[in-house]
Amino acid sequence: MTLRRYVQLDVFADRPGAGNPLAVVLDAEGLDDDAMQAIARWTRLPETTFVFPAPSPEASYGLRIFSPRREVPFAGHPSVGTAHVVLEAGLATPRDGLLVQEGIAGRLPLRVESEGAARSIAVRTPRASVLKTGEPANDPLLRAALAALPSGALPPALVDGGRRWWLAEVRDEHGLRAATPDWDAIAALAKATESMGVCAYARADAGQAYDLVVRAFVGAPAVFEDAASGAANATLAAWLAERGALPGGRNRYTVSQGREVGHDARLQLHIDANGDVWSGGHVRTVVSGTLDW
Q1: Can you tell me the distance from the alpha carbon of 237 to that of 173, in angstroms, rounded to the nearest whole number?
Q2: DSSP 25-84
Q3: CA–CA dist 39, 28 (Å, integer)
Q4: Which of 9, 52, 291, 292 has a CA between 20 and 30 Å from the CA of residue 187?
Q5: For the chain, percent helix, then strand, then coil, each to nearest 5?
């Protein structure tokens, strides 16, 4: 019998139930690919991460990320949540305020600010690249996928930042929150463009405690609305920075995501002086125990 430390979290949340759930398996040495995939399938959470000893002197720890269907090169909320667990378990100590995770996407730093319940963690996300901007009138798949979303000022764009998303601005917060997506059309667009689906966003109404509202409609390989996506929001931040359209012209802003699927996450986005995007927020531990697999 091999017992491994096991933790379940709520990421981008100031309280349990508000953010995006994550499972973390510590002491993952000895688990092969099939076992990790089986565990991720069994947890039935959006992602499950597996922590390994640091594979290089520059890294704080090694990381692999699995959805219930496949291994994932990079994802924001698993990166942020795993860093929280590593700190709580005493497996690594920040150097100059940074941890470094090493995985398929390479070595990525995570900035750690404050301690305890006030602690905030942000991952520097892979550089995003704009693959193309879309014109729904000339693209039947894109037109169908965005039909339920009243369009905003910026054109739709296909952007890859570790994960590939169609980014679509919606006219206002009400129009986005009230939208009912066409899941068949979004799935068709995702498969045809090898993307995750549509990340729709709108400027927040005046007086809100956040700057943007985001809804991430995943079309492949599964079909669902993501409660809180650090990677999607980082890709969006890079696109807005490139177009000079950051909320209020500021390099830091807050996103509200997940309310339409029973969550209420808050993500903090920061574009630094080098143009890198940091995606983060608070994390809450919900379950701590051992895994016997």
Answers
A1: 18
A2: ESS-TT--HHHHHHHHHHH-SS-EEEEE--SSTT-SEEEEEE-SSSEES--HHHHHHHHH
A3: 11
A4: 9
A5: 25, 40, 40
At 171, is the secondary structure helix, strand, or coil?
A: coil
Evaluate whether 29 touches 36 at the Cβ level (below 8 Å): no
CB-facing half-sphere around the CA of 265: CA atoms within 13 A = 31
| CA atoms of 68 and 48, how far apart (whole Å) | 8
Confidence at residue 117, expressed as pLDDT on a 0 to 100 scale: 83
Can you say whether residue 189 is alpha, beta or left, with left for phi > 0 and alpha for psi between -120 and 50 degrees? alpha
pLDDT tens digit sequence for 37-67: 999 999 999 999 999 999 999 999 999 999 9
At 83-112, the pLDDT tens digits run: 999 999 999 999 999 999 999 999 999 999
Contact 123, 280 (CB under 8 A): yes
Two tokens, residue 262: 């029973």
Report d(CA 257, CA 152) in Å as an integer. Answer: 18
How many other β-carbons are positioned within 10 Å of the β-carbon of residue 61? 22
Confirm if 29 and 287 have CB atoms less than 8 A apart.
Answer: no
Q: What is the pLDDT of residue 33?
A: 98
Q: What CA–CA distance (Å, rounded) separates 207 from 118? A: 24
At 59, list the tokens: 């890294």
- Looking at residue 179, its amino acid is A
- The number of CA neighbours under 13 Å toward the Cβ of 257 is 29
Residue 228 to residue 19: CA distance in whole angstroms: 6
Is this prediction's pTM over 0.85? yes
60: left (phi over 0), alpha (psi -120 to 50) or beta: alpha
Distance CA 120, CA 127 (A): 22
